[in-house]
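== Sequence, structure tokens ==
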Amino acid sequence: MYWNLPKGRTSNSRTVSLETAGYTILAMMTHHPITNEEKARKIVKWITAQCKGQAGFYSTQVGGGWVGLD
């Protein structure tokens, strides 16, 4: 499972991909948790691989920056 972001919008592509992945998991597990469990685990694995230094993720929220995992 994957999605393509519009070309030419690279500055925010990582944060948009992370947010999209999170909402994708939420939708998959809300509607068909048993059927989608294996796919969701792959997405979670990808999300955790995107963790930036200092144990956080880039944020799509206003103000930008990153979200720490304390």
Q: What stands out?
A: The longest strand covers residues 56-58. Helices lie at 13-31, 33-49. The chain has a mean pLDDT of 75. The chain has one domain: 13-68.
